[in-house]
Amino acid sequence: FRIVATVAPRLHAEQYMSIKALRVALQNDKDPLLRAMARKKHSLGVKQFNTLVEKVEGLLESYEVSVEQLDTASLELFDDVGRVPSCGLAACGQLSRLVPFASSNLLQGIACSTELWAEHQVLLRENSASAADAPFAMLDRYCSLDAMDLSLLRCVRTAQLVHLLALSVPIKTCDTVAVILPLIRAARVQEALSEPIRKLLMRNLLPRALLRLQSRDEIMAILAADAEPHLLLCTLAAVIRDAAMCVGDEILASARCIASVVTEWIVSSLLLKEGTAPLHVKAISAYRAFFASLDEAADVIDDSILSSIAKKQTSAVQEAMCMLPTLQIPTALLTMTIHRHLSIAPVVVASTVQQVITYSQGLRPLDGLEFLAELSSSRIIDTAAYNELVHTMNYFLARCCRLRHMPPNGRLLS
């Protein structure tokens, strides 16, 4: 097995990494995978290697070697290479060619291994999300290269695992949570992956996996499995939006289920103080980004993605809307965002609008403008209240910007 793996087709990093990421990663000349590539002296072409594998398989069959024995030897070799990532065997192209005699069950186990994905996932820099009010804004909820701690080994292995998962795991019958969680994390750092791997991930694997995600227990399991579920939600919503471009309204049921479960999870912590959702400023900003991306997905599908939650949580949101000035600004903004995403289509009454306008006038103009802009997206039937809201927003806008020509009354009118 080791001899066959020694002559496996050579790794070409540009097939798995983007050129920009590769240039950054190559600045570290001590990367173990770089050493492995230098140590790999022998390799065959794909056709020659496949022919060799067929002949060796025939030899193994003639000696009646069992599948269990083949898998045991293959797994031992795979683990040995994993422990020494700088050895020449680690520089083979596809992971399946490192263990060409492994059964489909073993390959599926490798592709879905939580430990393997965690060991090789691309890491983020600790200070990468300093702008708490706009997580991943520059790349539509995905990370930019400067937010990643790029490593040749981790980038290539992540891409190889994506390829192996596509090759060996039947999405329609697999464990949805075991598959979708590492794929979402890979999507977060897709800027480091090559274009073919990105297409495989974003247009093939994730859309099909999302279509199967329609269970509350599965969604809660995904949230519980991540140390920063608020950032995971940012990426998940962006994946829903991008998947909608591939599968259209087929994803609607999954998107609504995800929105409902996530909304209930947030409200239970935010207003009822019963849940486990993080509630620091960065997390609240990420939740608002989650709903913003769902709005973009709804535009793609041309249908609504609203949340259906229990009566207890619905009542808590409606009560919070009546006392917005008493809440902290991030909490109030998130409350308004959640309120307008409820499937019951609640109406904001005129007294609440006037109350919020009065409160916003005591804030900095930019903060007041953000506060009223969030409220303006709600369902406001009272015409006079809505007009006053728009006039006040224009007034705040004028105070935020230095305008060359101001109206004589000092206010901008709609």
Question: What does it look like?
Answer:
It is a single chain. Strands 1-2 form a two-stranded antiparallel sheet. About 3% of the residues have low confidence. Helix 8 packs across helix 10, helix 9 packs antiparallel against helix 10 and helix 9 crosses helix 11. 60% of the residues lie in helices and 1% in strands. The chain has three domains: 94 residues, no CATH class; 201 residues, no CATH class; 101 residues, no CATH class. With 414 residues, it is mainly α.
Cα radius of gyration in angstroms: 26 Å
For the sheet with most strands, the description reads: 2 strands, antiparallel
Going by helix content, strand content and strand pairing, the class is: mainly alpha
Form type: elongated
Provide mean pLDDT, rounded: 91
User: Strand fraction band?
Assistant: under 5%
Features:
2 strands; single chain; mainly alpha; 19 helices; elongated; two-stranded antiparallel sheet; 60% helix; 1% strand; 414 residues
Write the layout of secondary structure elements.
Layout: H1 2-6, H2 19-25, H3 32-39, H4 46-62, H5 67-83, H6 104-111, H7 114-120, E1 123-124, E2 148-149, H8 152-168, H9 176-188, H10 195-211, H11 216-224, H12 229-247, H13 252-270, H14 281-301, H15 311-321, H16 329-340, H17 350-360, H18 365-376, H19 383-400
Antiparallel strand pairs: 1-2
Short description:
This protein has 414 residues and is mainly α. It is 60% helix and 1% strand.
